[in-house]
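Check this:
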Amino acid sequence: MASDADLCTPRNMLMDRAGRAFAVVGQFHLEDASVASLRYVTCGDRLVKAGPADIARLHECEPAYRLPAGDTVHTIVPHDRVVRTLDQFAGVGDLDEDERSLIDTLAREAGVRIGVTGSSLLGTARSGSDLDLTAAACDHPRLLATARILAERGDVLSPLTDTDWRSVYDKRGIYADHYPFKLFLAHERRKGDRWMAGPRRIDLLPTPLSRTVGPEDLAVYRLGHARVSGKVADGSAPYGHPAIYLLEDGLADLKDGRESTVEAVVCFTHTYAAQAFPGEHVRASGVLERYGTTAAGFEGPVLIVGTARDEKGEWLVSRELAGRTVL
């Protein structure tokens, strides 16, 4: 029987009675349910990636999985529906010898504990699948620094080529009119959280702590699609899960012509983690929301980037980096 901590730990995966697979996300959970993202559904005798229609069907047919208000991308998974918990750290033991050797080297050099998530944890990885590695949020900076050193030495890891980056860009379904490939490349190369291990792409992801909140704390109220500009403030968590960019003088222009102040940009998609750092100015597009309470730490509206698996129309860029990039 999985402990409550296992059920609520971000990056772990949960299987429910219907054979659906969920990834635990975010920094909050309910006493008897985890906040998660539906990743796979059962089709015959195999798991296939879930799409927007699967999420909508789940919310419509099984209200117990619906968040209290507003969020149509994530779900809650009642703990009494969970039949199996896949722990990111225990899952390392099920990987093949080469994958375990890579993890052993990274863990030893960085002095951190490393886990695995995504398709490799679930056992659905195929040729060409990324290997998603995790470390506690407090250990993540050491893991990134170690990976960069190993890549510079040509030991175990190497940088992605432009062709590798193009594959990532195309896989993410990014809308080139708003976020062209050369600008994507400029942002990604400085992050240090994606590398190659031979022919395999490696993602290095942080696992935050999660805390218990009430249903009212998970409610969000949509104000509309908006574009936002502002200066990234100290105290931001650009590598977080989700990535959080606190803003100084944040201003949102809504599609209906209204303007609003905005407290932060919150990114639930890994594409827009570590896009900008304190002192830089950002431009972003997404959905302006207000939380039902201040449990998330915000009193005013925030812009959400990543309200759908399809990223078209939602993005965040550093204005300084954009100004130095020849498109």
Notes: Residues 4-86 form one domain.
